[in-house]
Structure to design on (139 residues):
């Protein structure tokens, strides 16, 4: 596999996380309805959602914030052929940080653990964008 193709695997792994979170959200909402802790109508406009599913919904929303810049960066790196091995490694670090962030968020949701996972991804993505900018400046 060339480095060019390798940049897409972290993107696929992140997409798998998003699909998994949608599944978890559905399972938790169904459980809340079965247990009588929520009515299905509550989910129509996401008002008064039980905490058990709310944390998953919030984490899912997080996957469409900073990770959007990740996917754009990966595509940009691919487009200008700047997707070398260090960039692929950084992309994997970003995705692992998102998995860690999500796991912490949907389980105990301890901010003291969630924040470092977020910061790892934030810094990693910043490095990826910095490399992209350097590559463009050198081209």
């Amino acid at each position: 596999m060339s480095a060019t193709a390798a940049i897409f695997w972290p993107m696929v792994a992140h997409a798998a996380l998003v699909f998994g979170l949608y599944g978890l959200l559905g399972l938790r909402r169904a459980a809340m309805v079965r247990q009588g802790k929520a009515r299905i109508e509550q989910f129509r406009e996401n008002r008064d959602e039980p905490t058990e599913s709310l944390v998953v919904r919030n984490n899912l929303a997080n996957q469409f914030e900073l990770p959007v810049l990740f996917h754009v960066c990966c595509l940009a790196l691919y487009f200008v052929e700047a997707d070398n091995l260090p960039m692929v490694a950084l992309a994997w670090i970003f995705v692992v940080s998102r998995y860690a962030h999500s796991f912490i968020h949907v389980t105990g949701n301890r901010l003291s653990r969630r924040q470092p996972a977020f910061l790892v991804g934030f810094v990693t993505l910043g490095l990826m964008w910095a490399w992209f900018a350097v590559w463009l400046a050198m081209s």
